[in-house]
Specification:
There is one protein chain. The protein is an alpha/beta fold. The mean pLDDT is 96. The relative contact order is 0.15. The two termini are 39 Å apart. Helices cover 43% and strands 15% of the residues. Helix 10 crosses helix 11. The protein has 19 helices and 15 strands. The chain has a six-stranded mixed β-sheet, with helices on both faces. The radius of gyration is 20 Å and the shape is globular. The structure holds pyridoxal-5'-phosphate. Pyridoxal-5'-phosphate binds at residues 111, 113, 144, 222, 254-260, 308-309, 386, 408-409.
Length: 463
């Protein structure tokens, strides 16, 4: 039976279903599985060439602890991915002799967030139908999580979705995806602050137990283990397509909250031969600095042309630290307490452990634009700015091992940056061609816990 423990060591140990429904642990930590199942080579090799849905079933099943029956789980997976606009779900294209791009932007909201959110939507809905409960999902977004969450939960009778996003700091397409759903259970809230503020207020709500229990708060940020788990799948899917387990591959991942790359770390621990996981950051480079110098210290968010990565407090890094510190919850709690005063120093031992798995690099604004321009000229592939950050950093890490860079969003989600780099304004796909004609609905709010809690209570009372 698979159990989930908190990275800060004192919250109750939970099963999969409870960990999925509760989000943040009650000691402020994040849930991780107590043991990671290791797949022998004989189980990894046959994944090559299977449909995405079948890979998903085999990779995720050991983590469920029987929470869903096999047939039921297969049904949820099929329902989650049937709305994708590519039969491969996660197709791979080749950029250079040893460099591949995994396109994760063919879901309904055009970013990789759909892979996890569509599945969580199905899983939570199934769990709520059984229990008869009603929940309030509150999430923070740098742009893509919010739209993916609304797409996954809109119209559900027993779920309200409240999304906090930094006012003026998401692209027009991202904002409109959050403000145009007409369903009454979708609530877009623009707060005066950056993503780190939004995420901090969501965590404050979880740490206020009276509020948390009163509104039956659930979370779909990547603090939710189920989201990370869904993202482990495409590492297996892509690596086996390139010859794993018989040959190793590396991945480069455009990183903000460390959720996507942490999923790669889990895949590696499950036995997938991943040589290096390369963290790619934009000018908000706290993770690159931390890995180089051992000092994890925020110096404020600077808005960039890859806004989904404008993050300085990377929640999921806590999960990696938990392992690097020998799964010592009190040591992690101590580091996170130091974070309140701006940062902490990573111990030499923990740093060496992290460096054995992760490499890192940063990409400036100019380099991002230049990479979009050059990649289009050399390969015909039009990159979004986040994927361009990945491609640039990957190119600095190319070697004998095949490199797979994750393309995290569709270029049409960030048309201004793409047009600046190439002169081409990418068109939205047909299913959202009228996005700019739909009326918007959103609320402005201060970066203030009490005000936000009042707003959430009012919204759910109205329904
Ligand atoms: C969310 C997001 C990222 C960063 O992913 P993390 O899991 O937060 O590291 C990168 N690119 C795009 C387009 C995103 O939406």
């Amino acid at each position: 039976m698979m159990h989930y423990v908190s990275t800060r060591g004192t919250a109750p140990v939970l099963g999969f279903g409870e960990a999925m429904m509760s989000g943040l642990a009650r000691d402020g930590g994040l849930y991780v599985p107590d043991t990671v199942p290791v797949f022998p080579r004989g189980e990894i090799a046959p994944l090559a060439g299977l449909p995405y849905e079948e890979v998903a079933f085999r990779v995720m099943r050991p983590y469920l602890g029987g929470f869903f029956g096999d047939d039921e789980f297969r049904g949820l997976i099929d329902a989650a991915y049937k709305g994708f606009h590519h039969t491969a779900r996660a197709p791979m294209v080749q950029l250079a002799s040893n460099h591949f791009l995994l396109e994760l932007f063919h879901g309904p909201t055009l970013a990789f967030k759909d892979f996890a959110m569509q599945l969580i939507g199905q899983m939570m809905q199934a769990a709520l139908t059984k229990s008869g409960e009603r929940i309030t999902i509150v999430g923070a977004t740098s742009g893509d999580t919010g739209s993916a969450a609304m797409e996954a939960f809109r119209g559900l009778a027993n779920v309200d979705v409240v999304i906090l996003f930094p006012h003026g700091r998401v692209s027009d397409v991202q904002r409109r995806q959050m403000t145009t759903p007409v369903e009454a259970n979708c609530h877009a809230v623009a707060i005066d602050g950056d993503f780190d503020d939004a995420q901090a207020r969501v965590k404050d709500m979880f740490n206020d137990f009276a509020f948390r229990d009163g509104v039956r708060l659930a979370g779909v940020n990547s603090i939710n283990w189920a989201r990370v788990l869904a993202q482990v799948v495409y590492y297996f899917y892509a690596a086996t397509a390139l010859g794993a387990p018989h040959r190793a591959v590396s991945f480069t991942v455009p990183t903000g909250n460390f959720g996507d790359i942490f999923a790669g770390y889990i895949a590696r621990r499950m036995g997938l031969p991943i040589e290096k996981l390369v963290i790619a950051t934009n000018q908000n480079d706290i993770l690159d600095r931390a890995l180089r110098a051992g000092d994890y210290r925020t110096n404020g968010v600077r808005p960039s042309i890859s806004p989904s990565m404008d993050i300085q407090v990377s929640s999921n890094f806590e999960r990696a630290l938990f392992d690097a510190y020998g799964r010592d919850g009190s040591a992690v709690a101590q580091l996170m307490a130091e974070m309140k005063s701006g940062g902490f120093h990573i111990s030499q031992g923990a740093l060496e452990t992290l460096r054995a798995t992760f490499a890192s690099g940063r990409c400036s604004e100019d380099e991002t634009l230049a990479t979009i321009t050059r990649t289009l000229a050399e390969t015909g592939e039009l990159l979004c700015p986040h994927s361009a950050v990945g491609v640039k950093v990957a190119e600095d890490h190319l070697g004998a091992t095949p490199m797979i860079t994750l393309a995290t969003a569709h270029p049409a989600k960030f048309p201004d940056a793409v047009e600046r780099a190439t002169g081409i304004r990418p068109a939205l796909p047909p299913h959202m061609a009228d996005l700019f004609d739909r009326p918007e609905r959103m609320t402005r709010a201060p970066n203030d816990l009490a005000a936000l809690q009042t707003l959430v209570r009012e919204r759910i009372a109205r329904r």
